[in-house]
Design a protein that fits this description.
The complex is a heterodimer of chains A (about 400) and B (about 80). Chain A is an alpha/beta fold. Chain A folds into 4 domains: about 80 residues, Nucleic acid-binding proteins (OB fold (Dihydrolipoamide Acetyltransferase, E2P)), CATH 2.40.50.140; about 140 residues, Succinyl-CoA synthetase domains (Rossmann fold, 3-Layer(aba) Sandwich), CATH 3.40.50.261; about 40 residues; about 45 residues, no CATH class. Helices cover about 45% and strands about 20% of the residues of chain A. Chain A is built from 12 helices and 13 strands. In chain A, the strands form 3 sheets. A 5-stranded mixed barrel of chain A has the order 1-2-3-5-4. In chain A, helix 5 packs parallel to helix 9 and helix 6 packs parallel to helix 7. Chain B has about 80 residues and is of the alpha+beta class. Chain B has one domain. Chain B contains 2 helices and 2 strands, in the order ααββ. A two-stranded antiparallel ribbon of chain B has the order 1-2. In chain B, a hairpin with a 7-residue loop joins strand 1 and strand 2. Chain B is elongated, with a radius of gyration of 20 Å. Chain B starts with 11 loop residues before the first helix and ends in a 7-residue tail after the last strand. Classes of the chains: A alpha/beta (about 400), B alpha+beta (about 80). At the A-B interface, helix 5, strand 7, helix 6 and helix 10 of A face helix 1, helix 2 and strand 1 of B.
Chain lengths: ~400, ~80
């Protein structure tokens, strides 16, 4: 099945067709690596031959009265150890056993290390953490975003602890619009992990539960141990809704913290993270209201301005203004023509007077003034120019310079 | 988009988000005066609703019972409230 082993003959080596050293060594390594017992090993023994390479990796031997095993502590693992062992120390180590092909020997690859008899819990913690991390349970891309306004906050904690009191206080102060659904649980002891896991599974399907807080107040490592349980970690990761952990104090990190979508340092902070703060919301609402009023005012101002511009444009386009222009023009023309006619009249009047004077010079009346008279027959008005035109008794009108008088022929 | 629900029918979250959108739409401009007035009045009503919701809110707490049996039920338990 494995590509490394397929080259081995089913019937074993023969002088004509021997294995290569690499082939047989890979085969042996494969046997180690596929053995589950060898991949998850706890060992206790005495350290000897401890040395560190220039690259920072540590090498040593673990031994008891009758046997020994070569151990490797990679630099990355060594960096996580609070202290490195010395020759002669008895240590408890966790790791896997595999084959170092170059030297043809099996070795213990240590991933957690602790002085023997002290802090077994710590080692188990490190081992579980390493295993779940390798599985990808703590990967950042698994983390779900928290809801902005959770309708209901699920809370998994002890019904009697200070943690619950703190959480309710913070939720009530910050965002009393939310509802709290409490799953009262044991949070320490052997019964706690399955209880917590069951509560997480139940809460996530309750209507309106948008986020869950799993919390416990501070305590010793042993007291917080329920939150380092694999069942709890898996229930957290499998949850439909995001989960906030708030376990212990600032400095306590549990497996549940790594599995949670958000780790809060304390239960109170978990509650703060779960909901928005109404003081900020009210500020935001006020700011938006102000902004709306501002926008409305400037809109009205803009519209008013536009209206004014329209009115002006309309005025410019109105026939009234044209009428006004024409009226003025008519007025001007009228005045101009009046002036013109006046001039002409004066001129004509002047000429007329000259004519009258001239005419007066030629008037027969001027002759009359010198003593002549005009005689007309009364009945016909005919001017009498000859004696033949009149008989005795004919009635005449005689015109002299200052008037007329009747006369008769004798 | 026909808007039918009055602010009172909206949840706090819905009203809050709609108010945010209302401000953004007015910011964007490009509206008639009538639209602006309608949005402005809608925004005011939404803000009033949000503030009133916060003013009237009181944290409600209930317990989930029956976790072990799988027969879940929610029980009101205000005695857990402090003060």
């Amino acid at each position: 099945m494995n590509p490394n082993t397929e080259q081995l003959s089913l019937f074993g080596p023969s002088p004509q067709n021997p294995y290569t050293i690499s082939q047989i060594t890979r085969y042996i390594k494969e046997l180690f690596d596929t053995d589950f017992q060898l991949q998850d090993v706890w060992l206790e023994g005495e350290v000897s031959n401890f040395s560190r390479s220039a690259a920072g990796h540590a090498y040593f031997t673990l031994k008891d009265a009758t046997a020994s095993i070569q151990c490797v502590l990679w630099r990355s693992v060594a960096a996580r150890q609070p202290s490195l062992p010395h020759n002669g120390d008895t240590v408890l180590a966790h790791g896997r056993i595999s084959v170092y092909e170059v030297q043809g020997r099996y070795q213990f690859y240590v991933d957690a290390l602790q002085p023997a008899g002290v802090g077994l819990l710590y080692l188990e913690f490190e081992a579980l953490k390493a295993r779940l991390a390798a599985e990808g349970l703590f990967a950042p891309e698994r983390k779900r975003p928290l809801p902005s306004f959770p309708r209901c906050v699920g809370v998994v904690t002890s019904p009697t602890g200070a943690a619950l009191r703190d959480i309710l206080h913070v939720l009530g102060r910050r965002f009393p619009l939310t509802r709290v659904l409490l799953a009262p649980r044991l949070v320490q002891g052997n019964e706690a992990p399955p209880q917590i896991a069951a509560a997480l599974r139940a809460l996530q399907f309750q209507p309106e539960v948008d986020v869950i807080i799993v919390a416990r107040g501070g305590g010793s490592l042993e007291e917080l141990w329920a939150f380092n349980d694999e069942r709890v970690a898996r229930a957290i990761v499998a949850s439909r809704v995001p989960i906030i952990s708030g376990v212990g104090h600032e400095t306590d990190f549990t497996i549940a913290d790594f599995a949670a979508d958000v780790r809060a340092p304390t239960p109170s902070v978990a509650a703060e993270i779960a909901v928005p703060d109404q003081a900020e919301l009210r500020n935001t609402l006020r700011a938006w209201e102000r902004r709306l009023a501002q926008l409305m005012q400037s809109k009205i101002a803009r519209e008013r301005h536009a209206l004014k511009a329209q009115i002006q444009a309309l005025r410019r386009a109105s026939p009234q203004s044209r009428i006004d222009v024409l009226r003025q023009r008519v007025d001007e023309l009228t005045r101009a023509s009046a002036t013109h006619v006046g001039h002409r009249l004066a001129l004509h009047r002047e000429r007329l007077r000259a004519c009258i004077l001239q005419l007066q010079g030629m008037s027969p009346y001027a002759t009359l003034a010198r003593g002549y008279a005009i005689v007309r027959r009364r009945e016909s008005g005919q001017v009498v120019r000859s004696v033949t035109q009149v008989q005795t008794g004919a009635r005449l009108d005689v015109r002299v310079s200052d008037g007329e008088f009747p006369a008769a022929v004798e | 988009m026909g808007r039918t629900s009055t602010p009172e029918e909206l949840s706090f979250e819905e009203a809050f988000k709609e108010l945010e959108e209302t401000v953004q739409r007015m910011e964007a401009g490009d509206l008639t005066l009538e639209e602006s007035i309608a949005l402005f009045e809608r925004g005011q009503a939404l803000a009033r609703h949000c503030n009133a919701a916060l003013d009237q809110a009181e944290l409600r707490v209930s317990q989930l019972a029956g976790i072990e049996s799988g027969n879940y039920r929610q029980v009101t338990s205000n005695e857990e409230r402090e003060k």
